[in-house]
DNA sequence: GCATAGTCGCC
DNA sequence: CGGCGACTATG
């Protein structure tokens, strides 16, 4: 049944008629299945051919499956894997059945009769390969699935039992004058470190010794030799490859304890490839392929070539096996995404709440912010210009799926890289039920009627609570009341708490701040702030400067005219603005923020 | 001006 | 060491 399914799948994917040029990850599983079928077929073939010490596996070697979940849409078209150029010319290196025969030995396999049409086939065009496979599969089915499966199980096989950890390690340059560290295993933890490991599975009774050569190959197909080098234990000086030898009867498994990746500079790329060629390392016989320029320097795979020696001295080898990709931690294109914090984690279900997110380096053209709860999801809204120096994003919350919620709804927010769909760890965001008077228009009208503008400012400047009130950036278009916008962050709610605004401790304070925020929505006022390098603590600025109140008095602006939603373009904010924002959030409330020297410390984005 | 590549040096 | 941030160079 499985075979039939996979056959159908292959038909669907045009593998069988030789027109498949898809991303390999999409078809990896099918290829795996194919591989096994072909191996099974190969085992039926006649006497084994003597293989070279590290036999060139053929170009037609089915790619190993790397179940990465999703394809990487961003990989450049030129790097898209195409196993063999379709059509006319037969590539001399491609000899489909041969390696399979090489992998076979007289031992335990000779009894298997040669398969129809396999042993004699030396054709290597994409098409004939497909045809050949198609034929084999058909006959395989007639023989019965179980028989084949049994034979698959009998065959010695190199399996990656512990994949390398794909992220978290920097590739080191030689100039960094250090060991390149050790690649860990995927299941490695702080307390229990593991290493990448392989295992020789299947019948090994008569195997005296296996020699495994590890080299780096490109992530994408065809897996070409990669210019980066393996360094560490078992990696002979400057060879860039790792060679280990062991008797599988003692231990089928071998862990690679000290394998580091040393990257070469672009200048030395060609040189390094030459070196690899001179070492006869080209596991997939890709030859001197073109397109080295766009080779992905931030991702590699380990490639294991296994040669074994039988009791009688005969040597044999297996097709190369590759690991999952390993990504350079330093490359933003592939690094782990991380949200450091949001400046607020609550907002109205109507959305449009402007939020500042600090995050690890992202690429502005390849990142999205995803809000999710259950089956609902929506994107945070921002433009590329809202991504600040790769480490901060100003965005607006999407409206929640329901607008008539009566209680708070917690959703998760993640950063997602568009190209590979990689996601960060989630942080929480809480949607609040709709507020019938979001702008508190009624309340503000009341305030205005009760107090003159000037009077109110004086109150503010003199009010003790206000002196501790941090500078508050305007939240234009927010649907929250000022109270909410200032008090959203709840202490202890995930890791956002420490970035949020502290709760107010008095109502008068809130009203003062509301006024300030309204002031800050006046462009002229904001300009003044920038030009005069105001202390980030607004009210303290008022206290310090005798000019401050007169400044407000001289502002010839109509409060009501200027009050209202407008679109804030984050790119207009300069670095100083941003630092101000960030440092405000990092400053504990308990510390008085009235000292000018403290204000002066908060200057540059370096502190981000 | 911005992002990436390559280096340097602190903790 | 080794992990990391930050600096300088380059494109």
From TrEMBL:
Location within or outside the cell: Nucleus
GO CC annotations on file: cytosol; nucleus
Compositional bias of kind Polar residues: 64-79
InterPro entries: Ig-like_fold (IPR013783), Ig_E-set (IPR014756), IPT_dom (IPR002909), NFkB/Dor (IPR000451), p53-like_TF_DNA-bd_sf (IPR008967), RelB_RHD_N (IPR030496), RHD_CS (IPR030492), RHD_dimer (IPR032397)
Keyword Transcription annotated: yes
Low complexity biased stretches: 588-601
Disordered as annotated region, ranges: 43-85, 102-143, 584-608
Listed Pfam families: RHD_dimer, RHD_DNA_bind
GO MF terms held by the record: DNA-binding transcription factor activity, RNA polymerase II-specific; RNA polymerase II cis-regulatory region sequence-specific DNA binding
CDD domains: RHD-n_RelB
Domain RHD, chain residue ranges per copy: 153-333
Entry keywords, A to Z: Activator, Biological rhythms, Nucleus, Transcription, Transcription regulation
Listed Pro residues bias regions: 47-56
Entry keyword Transit peptide: no
Example GO BP: positive regulation of transcription by RNA polymerase II
Cross-referenced PANTHER family: NUCLEAR FACTOR NF-KAPPA-B PROTEIN, TRANSCRIPTION FACTOR RELB
Protein name: RHD domain-containing protein
């Amino acid at each position: 049944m499985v075979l039939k399914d996979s056959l159908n799948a292959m038909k669907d994917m045009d593998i069988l008629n030789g027109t498949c040029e898809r991303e390999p990850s999409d078809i990896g599983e099918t290829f795996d299945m194919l591989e096994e079928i072909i191996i099974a077929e190969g085992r039926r073939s006649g006497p084994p051919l003597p293989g070279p010490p590290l036999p060139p596996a053929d170009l037609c070697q089915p790619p190993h499956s790397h179940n990465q979940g999703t394809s990487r849409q961003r990989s450049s078209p030129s790097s898209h894997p195409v196993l063999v150029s379709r059509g006319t010319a037969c590539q001399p290196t491609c000899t489909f059945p041969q390696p399979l025969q090489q992998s076979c030995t007289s031992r335990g396999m000779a009894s298997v009769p040669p398969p129809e049409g396999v042993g004699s086939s030396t054709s290597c065009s994409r098409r004939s390969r497909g045809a050949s496979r198609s034929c084999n599969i058909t006959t395989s089915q007639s023989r019965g699935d179980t028989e084949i499966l049994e034979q698959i199980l009998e065959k010695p096989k190199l399996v990656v039992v512990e994949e390398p950890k794909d992220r978290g390690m920097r590739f080191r340059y030689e100039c960094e004058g250090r060991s390149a560290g050790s690649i860990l295993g995927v299941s490695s933890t702080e307390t229990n470190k593991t290493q990448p490991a392989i295992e020789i599975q299947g019948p090994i009774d008569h195997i005296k010794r296996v020699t495994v050569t590890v080299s780096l190959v490109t992530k994408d197909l065809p897996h070409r030799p990669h210019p980066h080098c393996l360094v560490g234990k078992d990696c002979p000086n400057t060879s860039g490859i790792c060679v280990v030898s062991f008797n599988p009867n003692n231990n089928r498994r071998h862990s690679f304890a000290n394998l580091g990746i040393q990257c070469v500079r672009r200048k030395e790329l060609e040189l390094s490839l030459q070196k690899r060629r001179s070492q006869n390392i080209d596991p997939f016989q890709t030859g001197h392929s073109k397109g080295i320029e766009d080779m992905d320097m931030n991702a590699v795979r380990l490639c294991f070539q296994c040669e074994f020696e039988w009791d009688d001295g005969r040597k044999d080898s297996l097709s190369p096996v590759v690991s999952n990709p390993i990504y350079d931690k330093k490359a933003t294109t592939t690094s782990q995404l991380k949200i450091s914090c949001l400046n607020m984690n609550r907002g109205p279900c109507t959305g449009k709440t402007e939020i500042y997110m600090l995050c690890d380096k992202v690429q502005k053209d390849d990142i999205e912010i995803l809000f999710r709860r259950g089956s609902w999801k929506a994107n945070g809204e921002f433009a590329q210009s809202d991504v600040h120096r790769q480490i901060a994003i100003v965005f607006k919350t999407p409206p929640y799926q329901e607008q008539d919620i009566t209680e708070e709804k917690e959703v998760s927010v993640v950063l997602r890289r568009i190209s590979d769909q990689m996601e960060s760890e989630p942080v929480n965001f809480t949607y609040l039920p709709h507020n019938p008077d979001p702008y508190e228009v009624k309340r503000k009208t009341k305030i205005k009627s009760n107090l003159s503008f000037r009077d109110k400012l004086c109150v503010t400047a003199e009010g003790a609570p206000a002196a501790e009130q941090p500078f508050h950036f305007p939240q234009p278009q927010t649907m929250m009341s000022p109270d909410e916008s200032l008090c959203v962050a709840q202490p202890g709610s995930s890791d956002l708490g420490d970035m949020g605004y502290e709760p107010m401790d008095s109502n008068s304070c809130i009203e003062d701040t509301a006024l300030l925020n309204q002031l800050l929505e006046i462009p002229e006022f904001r300009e003044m702030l920038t030009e005069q390098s105001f202390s980030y603590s607004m009210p303290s600025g008022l206290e310090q400067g005798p000019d401050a109140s007169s400044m407000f008095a001289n502002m010839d602006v109509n409060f009501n005219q200027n009050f209202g939603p407008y679109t804030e373009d984050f790119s207009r904010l300069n670095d100083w603005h941003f630092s101000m924002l960030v440092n405000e959030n990092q400053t504990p409330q308990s510390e008085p923020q009235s000292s000018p020297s403290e204000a002066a410390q908060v200057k540059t984005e370096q502190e981000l």
